Amino acid sequence: MDAVRYYIALLMLVVFPAGMSMWFLIHPLAGFWRRRGPVLTYLAVLAVAFLIGFTAFRFREPLLSVEFGFGWPQAIIAIAFFAGGIALEVNYRRQITIGTLLGLPEVSEGRPNVLLNRGIYARVRHPRYLGLLCEISGSAFLVNYLATCILAIATIPVLYLTVLLEERELLQRFGDEYLEYSQQVPRFIPRFTPPPHSSPSDR
């Protein structure tokens, strides 16, 4: 069990910061990347993400030197977080294409722009990021390393800033349509009923 926890913690340190760095490169500079196309965009951001992941792997020993052991109380909390993350992921994947999941609309000229406002997106604006936070938190509780706890806590402001950058870009793309949507649907805390303008097909 200790070896499993260690490798999950190592995977978290290598993958999560590297993955989140991509959005910090794409969203603030979406117009710049769109003019250069998705191939050049992803070559550049993947290179940066690889460098971050490699650096985390290189310093894995000091980063993972403090751990608090396995315990069932935090394991139960982890399961609850995982359940929430999986429920959100199942729901948002019904509404989102692989291209949108990879961010192609942000970096491609001429791709159709469709505002996601149906299904789970009629109840919460950012189910992907909320689900990611649940999964990172669940992983941190499960492995119980100091570094992964810090990573989970740091994820909160990082995701919030990512959301602000993404919303600015969405407002530029969709204008009043997104403004109206953002006024009716909460950012992170899902509402139990869809917004008033939703049609039966939105639910």
Describe this entry's structure for a reader.
This protein is an all-alpha fold and 203 residues long. It has one domain (2-202): Four Helix Bundle (Hemerythrin (Met), subunit A) (Up-down Bundle). Helix content is 70%, strand content 0%. It has helices at residues 2-26, 30-58, 60-63, 72-92, 98-101, 104-107, 127-143, 146-174, 176-184. The longest helix has 29 residues, at 30-58. The radius of gyration is 18 Å and the shape is globular. It starts with a helix and ends in a 19-residue tail after the last helix.
Level of helix content? 55-70%
Q: Give the distance, in angstroms, between the N- and C-terminal Cα atoms.
A: 42 Å
Q: Note poorly predicted spans.
A: 199-203
Largest sheet: none
The SSE order reads HHHHHHHHH
Number of strands: 0
Rg (CA only) = 18 Å
Summary keywords:
203 residues, mainly alpha, Four Helix Bundle (Hemerythrin (Met), subunit A), disordered C terminus
How would you summarize the topology of this molecule?
Layout: H1 2-26, H2 30-58, H3 60-63, H4 72-92, H5 98-101, H6 104-107, H7 127-143, H8 146-174, H9 176-184
Quick description:
The chain has helices at 2-26, 30-58, 60-63, 72-92, 98-101, 104-107, 127-143, 146-174, 176-184. By secondary structure, the protein is mainly alpha-helical.
